[in-house]
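$ fold --in a.seq
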Amino acid sequence: MYVGKDRVRTDMTQNEQKIIHIVDKKQRVEWLLYPSQRSYMVMPGSGAGSEAASKSRSHNPCEGAQGASCRNLGKEQLFGRQATKWEVTFDYDGQTMK
């Protein structure tokens, strides 16, 4: 999971296919990217995913994310900046994805 000021990016694998999900809170839009198919979908969104991400600086990034659970793995240095590392698990269609 990558969190920016107004966007959240989540990379996942489903059925051995890489999927990138980007939520833009400011523009209220979501993108689903399928790199192996060289295709994407754009959907109007509520920006709820970004709302949870904006709280992640001080709270659990999974707050408000249905089917997600997060485990705080502690602090670490990333590119010279202090970061909190999280393990994010999603339950989707009876499968658990990390």
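$ fold --in b.seq
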Amino acid sequence: MHSTSYSRFSSSSCKAVIGRKGKKALAGKTIKLKKGKGFKIKATKKNTTKKITYKSSNKKAVKVSASGKVTVLKYAKKKVTITVKVGTVKKTFSVKVIK
């Protein structure tokens, strides 16, 4: 059976919303962006008081704010992983910076 639901934090969800048209990408996918572009990660939590945290594997190339706003600062040869964490549950997005 094929499911179209978003990746879950228990009964919570995590998705990236890219651009003005609201193109969506699910956790676990690779997002291609140019320098200066970005997107917002919309992570929701249900039935928990745990804090949602965001982390970039390469802060010099791609930064992520405490609210989940991701911004590409400069070109990176390797993919940058953005980790979204609620308690002990983690979801990731890969960002490939293109020229």
